[in-house]
């Protein structure tokens, strides 16, 4: 249904900016804010293309309250920390630990099942998700794709499409879901 994530940590964006500046051979700080914004955008595009969160951070996801297992959209999920019931009207309420079940598959998919939903038509789940914790830990292909896209966005502002190498670097990490 809806997913809300914390922003990527500024230290990660700064590291991506610095690597992009090195790729572009820029040594001054004049364009730092613009390159940082492009690096943040490139990280977001990588996450959208791969359907995975690159960097670990917290978030909330609203799902339909169901006695069947419901897969979360955010992935790879590292932990599910809480669940709250959301009624059609009124304030949310904490679900007792025995009122719902959670599971995290080996592939990082998070699953939630509400056993006793009470007045809740939806459930809000708190979780953490992401492939790695910091910039240096990100696999080289993902990192290079982000750097090359940010550099392309900086140098080729009028271009209609990203370079083919970017999607070629990201494609092995892309997750596809059927329904």
Concise account of the structure shown:
With 179 residues, the protein is of the alpha+beta class.
Structure overview:
This protein is α+β, with helices and mostly antiparallel strands and 179 residues long. It is built from 4 helices and 8 strands, in the order E-H-H-E-E-E-E-E-E-E-H-H. A 5-stranded antiparallel sheet has the order 1-2-8-4-5, with no helix packed on it. Strand 4 and strand 5 form a beta hairpin. The radius of gyration is 19 Å and the shape is elongated.
* Helix count from the secondary structure assignment: 4
At the first level of CATH, what is the class of the largest domain? Mainly Alpha
Number of domains: 2
Q: Looking across the biggest beta sheet, what order are the strands in?
A: 1-2-8-4-5
CATH fold call of the largest domain: Hypothetical protein yqbg
Number of strands: 8
Our Rg estimate from Cα atoms comes to 19 Å
Mean pLDDT across every amino acid position: 93
């Amino acid at each position: 249904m809806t997913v809300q994530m914390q922003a990527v940590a500024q230290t990660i964006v700064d590291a991506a900016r610095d690597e992009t500046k090195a790729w572009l051979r820029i040594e001054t700080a004049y364009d730092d804010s613009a390159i940082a914004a492009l690096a943040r955008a490139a990280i977001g595009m990588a996450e959208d293309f791969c359907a995975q969160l690159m960097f670990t951070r917290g978030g909330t996801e609203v799902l339909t309250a169901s006695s069947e297992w419901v897969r979360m959209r955010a992935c790879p999920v590292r932990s599910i920390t809480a669940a709250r019931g959301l009624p059609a009207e009124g304030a949310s309420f904490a679900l007792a630990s025995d009122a719902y079940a959670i599971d995290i598959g080996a592939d990082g998919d998070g699953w939630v099942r509400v056993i006793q939903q009470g007045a809740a038509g939806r459930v809000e789940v708190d979780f953490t998700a992401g492939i790695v914790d910091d910039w240096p830990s990100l696999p080289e292909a993902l990192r290079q794709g982000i750097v090359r896209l940010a550099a392309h966005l900086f140098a080729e502002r009028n271009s209609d499409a990203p370079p083919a190498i970017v999607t070629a670097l990201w494609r092995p990490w892309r997750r596809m879901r059927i329904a």
